[in-house]
Amino acid sequence: MTTNPVHLIEKKRDGGALSAEEISELVRGYISASIPDYQMSAFLMAVVLRGMDEAETLAMTRAYLSSGGVIDLSSVPGIKVDKHSTGGVGDKVSLVLAPLLAAAGVPVPMMAGRGLGHTGGTLDKLESIPGFSTRLSEGAFRDQVASVGCAIIGQTEKIVPADRKIYGLRDVTGTVPSIPLICSSIISKKKAEGTDALVLDVKLGRGAFLRKREETVLLARSLVSLGKGFGIRTVALLTAMDQPLGKAVGNWLEVLESLELLKGGGPEDALEVTLALGGLMLVLGGKTRTQQEGIPILRGLLRSGAAYGKFLGMVKAQGGDASVIEDTAKVPPASFIATVDSPSDGWVAGLDAMEVGGVAVLLGAGRMRKEDPVDPSSGILLRKKTGDRVLRGETLATIFANQGGRIEEARRRLLTAYRFKETTVPSPPVIDCLVDENGERPS
After folding, report:
1. pTM of the full predicted structure?
2. Which residues are catalytic?
3. What are the pLDDT digits (tens) for 322-346?
4. Is domain 5-51 annotated with CATH 1.10.760.10?
């Protein structure tokens, strides 16, 4: 580096704006290891506290992109459409949407991430399938999108390596909730994977990285604008994350729930989000005129088994053991199974998604440190959620763990994540609004 990184950290700490060259120097320095983790961590925290303007966010995204190559999918017929979530608890929608849209004739090239903080990662979930590889060469990725219709991979050494390295650092340094850092990370990956259009699932609520509605709308607007600036037609759907999505939280458990959804079943809230996002992807993929027009098409593909067939094809193409998908009993459960029972009669009035996600991390389903391994079989099955009637002693949740010493703390924390009332509580809505280049409107 020609500039002392300490000066750039101090400049951002004091509220200054960095030039494109300064940002590029920081990113290049970190990738080359001339800037250590502790200095990049300090810079990221300064960004969380001070923010970045539009020009800095654009420069950060370009710096990420220039750290590696961009995949050319022009040889794959059709409009390539991807979906990305800003991170939620129990959010296994990508596992369902990619094969579902492939079954509808929309090619889906998806570059996903690992767990961040209290949220799960699509790659961690897929890698709970024995043999499944999320590391494909550019040629293999392109060929699979063309032949199967979808592929889900992680960043390689050649594809946005700067974001891959910084992403892992953010996870363990408390620097996840930053609009410019989130935007740069997402859009750089989507541009690098060769997508033409993008549907974003921007989480809103207690379990989201940004909890205030105005911040969440700003994030959605920023993502839509940045995507457009890089030639990607982008729309965003705001969805609820006050409580976990679906019932399963944990990698293999979420694969099992995804299979239920792919066969036309599964929890209603997870299905509603899947169909809403899928309807938008059909519009961007040129298959339907409106979001609502596409929903019955998608329901039909789930019921017919076509989407499940595409998922099975993706698993086989990426080296996964398809036999455990066809017979899930082949995968043994966690060593320890325990329940959390209701202390009283009443209705569930709330379920803290962030606390549930934190318990999943405690059990081993996520990472406390960057180098931590992930336990594929640990996690939580939520038997009761907001709006459900409960009786004293009835099971609220089931804990799956391979470390028995953590069960009591997990049980205690899960019980505090629940709130109860003596009177009826309605089930909360899961869709908030749509944000596109024209602004915010109902969906």
Report:
1. 0.91
2. 84, 163, 170, 185, 189
3. 999 999 999 999 999 999 999 999 9
4. no
